[in-house]
Amino acid sequence: VSVGQIAVGPAAGAVSSRRPRRGDLKRAQRRWGIAFSTPVVLYFALFWLFPLVLAIYYSFTNYDLVQAPQWVGLQNYRNLFSNPAFWQSVRVSLLYTVGTVVPTLVIALALAVPLAKPGRFNGTMRILMFIPTIVPLVGAAFLWQVIYSPNGLANTVIGWFGFAPVSWLQNPNVALWSIVIMVVWKTLGIFVLIFLAGLQTIPGNVYEAARIDGAGTARVFVRITLPLLRRTLLFVLVIAIIGAMQSFVPAYLLTGGGPSGATTVLPVFLYENAFSYTLMGYASAISVVLFVALGGFSWFLFRVLREKKED
Amino acid sequence: MADNEERALSRRDLLRAGVGLGAGVAAAGPLASLLDGVPAGAATVPRSKPSGTLNVWIHAEPPSQLALGQIFKAYMKKNPKVNIKVLAIPYAQFEAKVLTAFVGGNPPDLVKIGGWDFASYASKGLFAPVDPAAMGYRSEAAFKSAFAPGSLASLKWGSKFYGTPIDYENLILLYRRDHFREVGLNPDRPPTTWPELQAAAQKLTIHKSNGQLKRAGLQPLFGVPIWDLLQFNSVLAGLGGSILSNNQKAGNLSSSKGVAAMTYYADLFAKHKVGSPQFQNLTLFPWGQMAKGDVSMTITGLFAVPLTASKTLKFGDQLDVAKIQQWNNGKKEVAAYTWGWAVSQHSSNKDTAFNLLRYINERSNADLLMGTVYTVVPVTNWQAWWRQPPQSAGNKGALITADQIKYSAYGPVIPQWANMAQQLSNNIVAACNGQKTPAQACADFDGAMQSILAGP
């Protein structure tokens, strides 16, 4: 039953003597199309487009949430690009992104490949691996604060190997990596799950053919699994990088951006400027820069994906 | 020595004392206000009869909430047409919630907020200037005279006052007498100058064989902007330096005094290794570490005395307080801060809010807060209560705080305070960690202040 037929249904008795014309159907379809898409368009316009346009506008103003925004042109951007704290935050964000995305993807893939095969404990292993993912992020952050405390689990474990205790969250050379470890632990499960889904789409007969041809495990992984998992990998890469660049809670809760700005990732830098210093114009400029950078990066990756598909 | 006779005051002791005091206050309140509660020049009749609902926001701290609750209850009994609704917000969310409520146009009538935030709110027109008439004072001079000299400075913006002080603190040295004895220092002669503090801290510090700290001779609270500012400003102000230039338009740490202060402060930790930002325990804080025996001295405020003493240490035997150190022949300055009560500019019940403020600042209520939860409400001659027995034997810290109040140095009072303090904190911690030289930290701070103070 098409949408058009349903649309004319209530009036069917009145016009039963004539067949619905092609034009009527099209008009009805258009009406229902508009009716169905309007909520989505409204939602998109209200909660995405409007804030985006507003943020872009605010980025050219001096706005403290109280007084009316004052147009300052490109001054916020000039201040931003000449602010060493911004570049420090960019550096921290890039380190954080590489530090979380690379190990997460490598470990998730390494775990997903054996877990995709039938095995007695694989189901249990998948569940165990997924537990950190369902732990609320705030709860996880507090859990890791305890783990990283001076007499916590982290120092106990390294003590077994003869290492001296570490100030995990207060040493500026270590704090970022402490957060990275927590984030990898937290997000691993969801990426294992996505890889498992991707691996299950690869037909079994491809592996059988490879084995008949005498390919070893490593060769099968490099020549079959990886190429056939390419789309999943790219998808995971894009969402992992965007997620990492937008990550706020772990750094905010574990270190508050400290010590001395060593863990001030861009979203924390943005938050401080917006809600601690009420520099909404400046904070909007940061968000626009972040948006453009992530938008450009996503476009580039999807372009790569499309080109490979066409190949 | 009288110092040795001081007894440990646990929070339970204080609360118990508070119950008694509360009863005493109920009976003696009117008399007390006749004797010393009404400052010179104050009118006794408010401009209008208090009525209506007042929304009051404070940060959550159960003992303080209890004491303030008693005061609000008594006020509502006295003014049956007033209904006070208190919202206690967890400290971690407090500043963000208050800010969003004020800028969102839905603020409380009365809020207790850090004095360092007053300039930011007042400059945006979010706080109402103090209305002496609504508080029952004849003039602004009468209002000023109701408070200890030096206690209102951070609550002023432009030429107007925007609130009344509560939770006033200036810095004191909290130290372990038993550690002093252990290393051959006289616990009755704590360091009085900054060089003496360094020497004592070095003696008290114990390192493990691998070079890590086992016991910090001196461990301030690092990484919390207000505390980094207060501690550093004590050293700097005593040298006659300032964080910002006189016109408050530029950073001033690259001056010779600024670099000297940063060098002294950073060297304590980066060079002499008497403590470290990395030695800080985020759950215990320095006073908890001190109670545990991991720290011998910390620079802190009066509030930390019961927090430390209530654990395992006996005040006067293992624990003691001293005045904050000075430079030889230096300027007598003591870093201080206060919280304050402010009335929202958008409150529809300002007169009643100011009337309540006047009531909170009555001597009997100031004594109640001081006696129960160590909260200093620096009304004129507020320390008198502590000079009376039996409480006169109870707290040396309160009297030191009182003696130092006239030397209060609050640091810059500017709308960009939060941003400035964060930059200062980052650079102080970096210098104390040895990541930056003191001169570099000063230069970086001044550089950051250029754009912060210039604005877009």
Structural overview:
The complex is a heterodimer of chains A (311) and B (456). By secondary structure, chain A is mainly α. Helix content of chain A is 72%, strand content 1%. Chain A is built from 14 helices and two strands. In chain A, strands 1-2 form a two-stranded antiparallel sheet. Chain B has 456 residues and is α/β, with parallel strands linked by helices. Chain B has helices spanning 2-5, 11-37, 62-78, 91-103, 118-123, 132-135, 140-145, 177-182, 194-204, 225-238, 256-270, 285-292, 304-309, 350-360, 363-373, 384-387, 396-404, 417-432, 438-454; strands at residues 52-59, 82-89, 110-114, 156-157, 160-161, 164-170, 172-176, 206-207, 213-215, 297-300, 319-323, 334-343, 408-409. In chain B, helix 11 packs across helix 19 and helix 18 runs antiparallel to helix 19 (438-454). Chain B is globular and about 70 Å long. Mean pLDDT of chain B is 85; it is low at 1-44. Chain A binds chain B through residues 61-62, 64-67, 72, 75-76, 79, 82-85, 145, 149-150, 164-165, 167, 169-172, 256, 258-261, 272-273, 275-279, 281-282, and chain B through 95-96, 99-100, 103-104, 120, 124-126, 208, 210, 212, 222-223, 277-283, 416, 418-419, 422-423, 425-427, 429-430, 433, 435, 444, 447-448, 451, 455-456.
